[in-house]
Design goal:
Blueprint (H helix, E strand, L loop, with lengths): L10 H18 L1 H5 L12 H10 L5 H13 L5 E3 L7 H8 L8 H15 L1 E7 L8 H6 L5 E5 L4 E8 L5 E14 L5 E9 L2 E8 L2 E9 L7 E5 L16 H23 L2 E3 L27 E3 L5 H20 L14 H37 L6 E3 L9 H12 L6 H15 L2 H13 L3 E2 L8 E2 H6 L4 H7 L27
Antiparallel strand pairs: 1-12, 2-3, 2-9, 4-5, 5-6, 6-7, 7-8, 10-11, 13-14
Length: 505
């Protein structure tokens, strides 16, 4: 029996749709944010004054900054894919180059999906295949008929249902998607829906709240080819947790306080003229105030001008909220200049927490992509043989602080050639690119040539002498000579090309 209640929505859809809109506007900023009505209206403030204040209030968009920082770290190193038996598959090659039939590569598509899942909390990825009258795989290839992927944001997925299988796993058995909205006129819109079940696919359209059934087709795949991609998993199946779930509300509070700052500046720069009703007075350059000769001095006009002392308090409140956003998003070590005042331990802790969050996100992306490739293989009727590897660790380091630390270690004079070599290699890792790094490591190893034939535990390297970490008497002892006066002082680091002075022999 075909359901005619096309407008029915999942209870969790109704619970979250306003939250999704708020997160989206918080990310988009600009006119989208202004149109959201997130600036609180003053008591007795008329519409014109409110709109003026709305135009004058800037938005410091922390939400967009957070989403893009996450994305930049996640996609700094692209995922590695091993296609194995599908390496030479033309459909795979075409899919990787144009995954959505709109010119976007698969990497570009997945990055976009990750960004929007961060904003909303989740997105749905659908991998479908166009209908074709081709009789063979060769004919499909000739017509470029192969699977493609689309993304649906949460406000366009109206209803869904999971069922537990005999194995204990959950599977998606129902999905209602709003595919398109077309404007017929200024007052009329036509909305198209598709309802997926395991055995059928239904198409519907709605015009002026009148629902019309279009067609029903067999679902040849035998399952709903949709993948759920959350930013963070929640306890509700089919609902994810946005990366902006806390930051967006803090950004809204900052928005209110930025408006207060604009008001304070405007009022303090433009004092208000106070006068009696009958006094002929006006404000502004060159204006003249006419007062009776016998006017009471307490009744004379004056200008009321706020001191502006509250500005510092509002600025401090904004700064506290910015720091709160950094703590909530684990961005204290990578956002702003204030983070540089943190201790080394605090910075390292921030890096570790951010790395853990990014690793979790990478695991979620990896799982979602594996599911997409499984569906791709089923559409193509081939054996799924694609392995996907997203980075599990991210290069989150304070390079300046590390360099200072290594330089300090370099000057301690520890008598260990192994330690000194490792320090020099780590310094090279910080300042050189991959092209020159291997060469630098080889040069560092080459400086460790042995002076004399000694055991591994007691050998003295020219590296020790270059670094100034041995005394002349230590060298003389190794080569069988007696101590000399003053020979217990460390050898000064030698300049390049200069001979090493180990005392008189």
């Amino acid at each position: 029996m075909i359901s005619t209640d096309i407008d029915y929505t999942h209870p969790e859809y109704d619970n979250n749709k306003y939250r999704w809109e708020f997160f989206l506007r918080s990310y988009m900023g600009g006119e989208d944010y202004k149109d959201g009505g997130y600036l609180t209206r003053y008591v007795n403030e008329d519409k014109n004054e409110y709109n003026r204040r709305l135009d004058l209030t800037p938005l410091d968009n922390h939400c967009k900054n957070i989403v893009h920082i996450y994305s930049s770290f996640l996609w700094r190193v692209p995922p590695v894919r091993q296609f194995n038996s599908l390496a030479n598959d033309s459909a795979v090659t075409s899919f990787m180059q144009d995954s959505d039939l709109d010119g976007r590569s698969f990497n570009a598509f997945m990055r976009q999906a990750q960004v929007w899942s961060s904003v909303y909390g989740h997105v749905w990825l659908m991998i479908d295949k166009p209908a074709s009258n081709a009789g063979t795989k060769a004919e499909e290839l000739a017509q470029d008929i192969r699977p493609y992927v689309t993304m649906f944001t949460p406000e366009n997925v109206m209803d869904w249902k999971y069922e537990r299988t005999a194995s204990g796993r959950f599977k998606l058995v129902y999905l209602k998607v709003r595919e398109a909205i077309e404007e017929i006129s200024d007052t009329e819109k036509e909305t198209y829906y598709r309802i997926w079940r395991e055995d059928t696919i239904e198409s519907w359209k709605s015009l002026n709240e009148v629902d019309e059934f279009i067609e029903r087709m067999d679902n040849t795949l035998g399952k709903i080819p949709a993948v759920f991609l959350p930013a963070q998993r929640s306890v509700v199946r089919g609902i994810g947790i946005s990366d902006l779930s806390d930051a967006a509300y803090m950004q809204k509070a900052i928005y209110q306080e930025l408006s207060e700052i604009e008001q304070l500046i405007r009022i303090s720069n433009h004092p208000t003229l106070v006068k009696t009703y009958n006094t002929d007075a006006s404000a502004g350059a060159g204006s003249v105030i006419n007062m009776p000769d016998d006017m009471d001095s307490n009744m004379k006009p004056y200008q009321m001008q706020p001191s502006g002392q509250n500005l510092d308090a509002v600025r401090a409140a904004i700064e506290d909220k910015v720091q709160s956003i950094n703590r909530m998003s684990h961005m204290g070590a990578v956002r702003g200049t204030a983070a540089m005042t943190q201790s080394g331990v605090a910075m390292q802790t921030e890096f570790q927490m951010l790395n853990a969050k990014l690793s979790e996100k990478a695991d979620i992306l990896e799982l979602a992509e594996e599911q997409l490739w499984q569906l791709f293989a089923e559409w193509q009727e081939v054996t799924p043989d694609v392995e996907v590897f997203y980075p599990d660790a991210f290069d989150l380091r304070d390079y300046d602080q590390e360099l200072v630390f290594l330089q300090q270690m370099r000057s301690t004079g520890v008598k260990s050639v192994t330690l000194m070599k490792e320090i020099d290699k780590q310094i090279a890792d910080l300042v050189l690119d991959d092209e020159n790094l291997a060469k630098a490591h080889a040069e560092i190893e080459a400086t460790a040539s042995v002076l004399g034939d000694f055991s591994d535990k007691t050998q003295i390297y020219s590296y020790h002498i270059d670094a100034g970490v041995v005394t002349p008497n230590e060298v003389r002892e190794k080569i069988g000579l007696d101590d000399i006066e003053g020979g217990d002082v460390l050898i000064e680091p030698r300049e390049e090309g200069a001979p090493t002075d180990v005392g008189s022999f």
